[in-house]
Amino acid sequence: MPPPALEPVTTDGEVLLTVEDLHVHFFTEQGELPAVDGVSFSIKRGRTLALVGESGCGKSVTAHAILRLIPKPGRIVRGRMVLYSRRAGIIDIAALDEGDDPLYQVRGGLVSMIFQEPMTALSPVHTVGSQISEAILLHREVTAATARRMGIDMLRRVGVAAPERRYDQFPHEISGGMRQRAVIAMALVCNPELLIADEPTTALDMTTQAQILGLIKAFQRDTGCSVLFITHDLGVVAQTADDIAVMYLGRIVEHGNVRDILKRPGHPYTQGLLRSLPSLNTGDRLAAIPGAVPSLTAIPAGCGFHPRCPHARTGLCDIGGAPALRALAPGHSVACVRAEEIAVGNNHAG
Question: What is the dihedral of CA 105, 108, 109, 110, to 10 degrees?
Fold first, then answer.
């Protein structure tokens, strides 16, 4: 039998995970590179937080840090990641030693991840089913036969046709959409309290993408789990998220409720991401953000976005340290020294 579902949780403001002043640096020949530079956020029970930004902004590094899966030469150098688990109590994930049993309990049991590329997430030399059952056997005291039944049942629940046959196949023997469903089954089979979805619909067609997003929402509705959704696509955010944290160059530059931010974005970077969304209602060319995310070896002074920002002012935005998050409205924070002016000026550059 599959493990019992968590009790559905109403959105009452109760926090499942807090990330406080997280710093993840990579120690390379070019120097110490701050891939995540003082990130703080919280995820409430039963809600979805979308971590948004272009490639190279630190989203996936942040997600991997929560599971303590930062590859060398990366290292968490400062910060706390506190999980308020109903099953295991309060756990500061950042403080755990690599060999600690609680860390194994967190990975895949309390917190699971749907990785971006299913062919990377799945071992090519093991069957799909054996990889799902391995997760079950690590976190549940059941027999191998029971683990097999649970794995087949989970494949069926995520929409895999003929799950008994797919269970015994290798990843290369099934389609890309089917592989992604298998990765989702592996992430969900132990009923995590937090599900991290790292670009789970990248490279999938629109129909399969909608089905995958629907699977995640259905699991969340049925179990009350929280979701951290990593994406660069604000169109996906509008369909899935309750809250948004916009990330740029290793820092959160805007944070708040999804409706507020999509309707009234306060940071020029968020505004640029929204303007670059395709629309079915217009034939206009997309307004791409000029330039690219800077290298971590050449982080600009002041606001990291100022070289690409239409609102930047010399002597204001390009000096000192990076701006701190501050309230633009209740529950809506922005890291921009001109946020109020831009809002008042109807988003015209000054």
Answer: 90
